[in-house]
Amino acid sequence: PQDRDTLWVLGMIGTIRSMQGRPGEAEAHYRESLAGHRRVLGDEHGETLARLRILGSLLQANGRPAEAEACFREILDARRRKSQDDDLNMPETLHRLGHVIMLQNRLDEAAPILAEALEQSRRLRGNEDRDTMSIIAVTISLRIRQGRLAEAEPLARESMDLRRRTGGDDHPQT
């Protein structure tokens, strides 16, 4: 397919297949949609990168972290080439990459990536943003897995305070 609407529909079929528990079919549709976006819009277009993120997330969810990592690295490289200091998608990209590296037990490699994600998210979105709080949670998990409990505890307290402020004491995530 050559038109954007058809490519979008291919991606939606992938989403439907994924939600139906048919990851193989979902992946095929996502890959076809991604290839079409690359052809029509180019490798670094925002819609192309969004399709690559979706594919990476599917691969990660289906136990293929190395392949997911390659997707997230490609996205990060494209975003860095554009070098926009105010790119709101950069913290999410760093978060996804750091998380998938952490899941592969490459903790020391994940640490600076997640630290950069957290710094950028705090700067661009603020502490009370859901994405920032999610990055804090993954960073806490990383610090615990590294045995750096003295660093994990203040982050955990901060996370609890943020969740209480944003959701209240009765919110399920508090």
Annotation keywords:
single chain; 174 residues; mainly alpha; 8 helices; 0% strand
User: Topology as H/E string?
Assistant: HHHHHHHH
Count of DSSP strands: 0
Distance between the termini: 46 Å
Q: What is the residue-averaged pLDDT?
A: 92
Give the gist of this structure.
The chain is an all-alpha fold. 79% of the residues lie in helices and 0% in strands.
Please tell me about this protein's structure.
This protein is mainly α. Helices cover 79% and strands 0% of the residues. The protein has 8 helices and no strands. The protein has helices spanning 4-19, 23-41, 46-61, 65-82, 90-103, 107-125, 130-145, 149-167. Helix 2 (23-41) runs antiparallel to helix 3 and helix 4 packs antiparallel against helix 5. The radius of gyration is 18 Å and the shape is globular.
How does the SSE layout of this entry go?
Elements: H1 4-19, H2 23-41, H3 46-61, H4 65-82, H5 90-103, H6 107-125, H7 130-145, H8 149-167
